[in-house]
Design goal:
The complex is a heterodimer of chains A (about 140) and B (about 170). Chain A has about 140 residues and is α/β, with parallel strands linked by helices. Chain A is built from four helices and five strands, in the order ββαβαβαβα. Chain A has a five-stranded mixed beta sheet with strand order 1-2-3-4-5. In chain A, α1 runs parallel beside α2. The N and C termini of chain A lie close together (about 10 Å). The C terminus of chain A is likely disordered. Chain B contains five helices and five strands; from the N terminus they run βααββαααββ. In chain B, strands 1-2-3-5-4 form a five-stranded antiparallel beta sheet, with helices on one face. In chain B, β4 and β5 form a beta hairpin. The two termini of chain B are about 25 Å apart. The chains are: A alpha/beta (about 140), B alpha+beta (about 170). At the A-B interface, α2 and α3 of A face α1, α2, α4 and α5 of B.
Chain lengths: ~140, ~170
């Protein structure tokens, strides 16, 4: 299965639901979508990895790049991941100490960080909650 | 002698094929199912490394993968990149790898627009951390003839297979 990307608004957050395999071949799609979301005004982005079947170092590089990009504009990247095989990858690389990680989208939005005034929110841009880049196949 | 040999043009699209073949051979060889995830990931990382080395150095030669199931399930991934290029991505002990938290400690101007080179540097670091962290039996050495390096990884076979036990 290749990569499927779908963006939606959830309260003050932009949720990017990812399904399939994130690897050296598909990671560029994820990178372009995340860049488009940030350029579209999204600042608090939740990447939902619940339906991701495979994640490699290229995907990790893209996620770190997105985190840096968002923090550079006063935003934040949150990861939703409840699969042990993916969590193990974050532990091995030490990235579990870099990312804000949650077991569900609800748990991530419940932190309320997007509405805390720390950085701007998608609400600053009326188009940010939409899906500016469309869905990738 | 390898059980299965696979060669592919150095393109990212073929790395998934190598992963699928590798796990299929491991399953056929009787490797414990709980090892499939790390075998899949390790083969993917080793092949991604080889593809990156070939692409960075404009080498059109095929990347080779050899899978064997003698005493242990063994995977060898062979690139044809100059040794200097391979050394630039030297495999390290995980303890020697940079603290990932430092990945974020850059001047604000750079953090706002991290370039592809910085992202790729992170990817290389994560790749090495994954390979070193996942595979107990991992060696990287120059190939015997011509340029290139061989990443060799192995996993235990079930006890009693070929008259030998597995090593964790």
């Amino acid at each position: 299965m290749e990569l499927s990307l779908s963006a939606r608004a959830a309260e003050d957050y932009l949720v990017l639901d990812v399904a399939g395999e994130i690897d050296v071949y598909t990671a560029p799609q994820l990178r372009e979508r995340l860049i488009a979301l940030v350029e579209g005004g999204a600042r608090h982005v939740i990447v939902n990895l619940d339906r991701v079947e495979f994640l490699d170092s290229t995907g990790l590089g893209v996620l770190v790049g997105a985190l840096k990009r968002l923090r550079g504009v006063g935003g934040e990247l949150y990861l939703v991941c409840d699969q042990e095989r993916l969590l193990k990858i974050f532990r091995i690389t030490g990235l579990d100490r870099v990312f804000s990680m949650y077991g569900s989208v609800e748990a991530a939005t419940a932190t309320g960080q997007a509405g805390s005034g720390a950085g701007s929110t998608p609400g600053d841009d009326p188009d940010a909650g939409a899906d500016p880049a469309g869905s990738a196949g | 002698m390898p059980t299965v040999r696979l060669s592919f043009t150095p393109a990212p699209a073929h790395v998934r094929t190598a992963r699928l073949v590798g796990v299929a051979v491991a399953r056929r060889a009787g490797v414990a199912a709980e090892l499939f995830d790390e075998i899949r990931l390790a083969i993917g990382e080793a092949c991604s490394r080889a593809v990156a080395l070939h692409q960075d150095n404009a080498i059109p030669d095929l990347v080779e993968v050899a899978l064997g199931d003698d005493d242990r399930f063994t995977v060898r991934v062979i690139d044809r990149a100059p040794i200097d290029a391979a050394l630039g991505q030297a495999l390290s002990d995980p303890a020697e790898l940079a603290d990932p938290v430092t990945l974020l400690e850059e001047p604000a101007g750079q953090a706002a627009s991290p370039d592809r080179a910085a992202e790729e540097a992170v990817t290389v670091g994560m790749r090495l951390a994954l390979l070193a962290g996942l595979v107990d039996d991992l060696t990287v050495r120059p190939v015997d003839h011509g340029p290139g390096t061989e990443v060799r990884m192995s996993w235990p076979m079930p006890s009693g297979r070929n008259g030998t036990g597995g090593r964790g």
